[in-house]
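Incident log, structure service

09:12 report received: a user says their structure output differs between two submissions of the same chain.
09:20 pulled the input from the user's history:
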Amino acid sequence: ITVSDYLDQWYDLYCKPNLKYTTQVGYLRIMGGHLKPRFGKYRLKAITSAALQEYANDLKMNGLSKAHIDGILSVFSASLDYAVEPLHEIITSPAAGVRRLKTTPAKRNTWNEEEIQYFLSLPSVQESNYYAMFCVSLLLGPRPSEVCGLAEDSFKDNPKQLLFYRSYNRHGTIDQHMKTFASHRPLPIPD
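09:34 re-ran on a clean worker, output below:
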């Protein structure tokens, strides 16, 4: 089986039933834009750790960020792990021997209480259709997609809490499969 055919198979067998739509779109972009052009015509069993390491080095030399390179390698690594188990297409994953580039997480800047109060006091914010969403985000800290997924039944059982059980993705689709299992949760509303 070629890498191109295998990636299609992995996408159908694993990605479609198990990953959120936005993750699927990202994986398709990586497979079509990076993995298939470089490895698609090769036999899956012919891929080596050295070939993957050379590819990672080439991506770095071409100016891709460490995070972008890590994302590409992560998708390929996940697909190769699936080829080992449960499919038994290969014995070991060639991605296991690849040295990843070290990435440092971006520094996050968070607002303090004074900055939050200032933002919420702005007339343009108070008059916005999104004012309630801003308040929920700033008070409880859910992801923007989770706030957008709130509905009337998110607080009907208990007016002192919001139940997060779905999200609204950037493609305009309500998604019952949120980012993590822990994302499905009630959050108490402070007094």
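09:41 both user submissions now match this output. Likely a transient worker issue. Closing.
09:42 reviewer note: The radius of gyration is 22 Å. The chain has a mean pLDDT of 89.
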